[in-house]
Amino acid sequence: MNLFSQKAKDLFNKWAVDYHADGMEKGHINSVKQSFKYIPVSNGNYLEIGFGNGYSIEHIASNQYSNGKCFGLDISENMLEKASQRLGFFPNVHLETGNFITWHPPSGTRFSCIFSMEVFYYFKEIQAGIEKAASLLEPGGRLMVLVNYYAENEVSLSWPDDVDVYMTLWSEKDYKQGFEKAGLINIKQKRLNRQQDAGTLMTMGYKAV
């Protein structure tokens, strides 16, 4: 099972070396900042799926997980190179490329928080991604999935055609049910950074203790 198509990987490699990577930071930063308040201080392990140019994991490594360990995974080698230039001096950050579905953390490593912004709709099977993430959480750990491409956000519905890349369209209800099917509890959903569109959909749930 592949996480991304080759088209998507090629697109992100291209975006890493043109203006899009920094543009994504500017476009997403308000939503991401609003989500940070749901991430408590921890000395545990944090995983970000799709770190892009590194702006989000930089904040987490400097703040909530400054005494923890931050792992970042991205499909794009060029994004890895770009983010490494930004984060190379952080001793608590480890970045790598790979397919999340087949990726394995170091033996025995579980995460108190797994975070993703604008990645899960690139899964051919979003449910498989949620279940993989849930399996990597420690008891009480949280999964936070943020997306702008979802059924209720009408301005996003043309994106697959706009960039000629496959995306899986789920609704807000689908994400909630997906978390439930993965066995996560205390599920909450919020719309972040609501302006002219429907906002960024954040779905958050916890692994039972």
Provide an overview of this structure:
There is one protein chain. By secondary structure, the chain is of the alpha/beta class. The protein has one domain: 3-Layer(aba) Sandwich (Rossmann fold). The chain has helices at residues 6-17, 20-36, 55-62, 77-87, 126-135, 159-163, 172-181, and strands at residues 45-49, 69-74, 93-97, 111-117, 137-147, 185-192, 200-206. It is globular.
Please describe the structure with a list of short key phrases separated by commas or semicolons.
seven-stranded mixed sheet; 23% strand; 209 residues; 7 strands; Rossmann fold; alpha/beta
The structural domain count equals 1
CATH architecture classification name: 3-Layer(aba) Sandwich
User: Pairing-aware structural class of the strands and helices?
Assistant: alpha/beta
Please bin the fraction of helical residues. 25-40%
Shape, principal axes of CA atoms: globular
CATH class membership: Alpha Beta
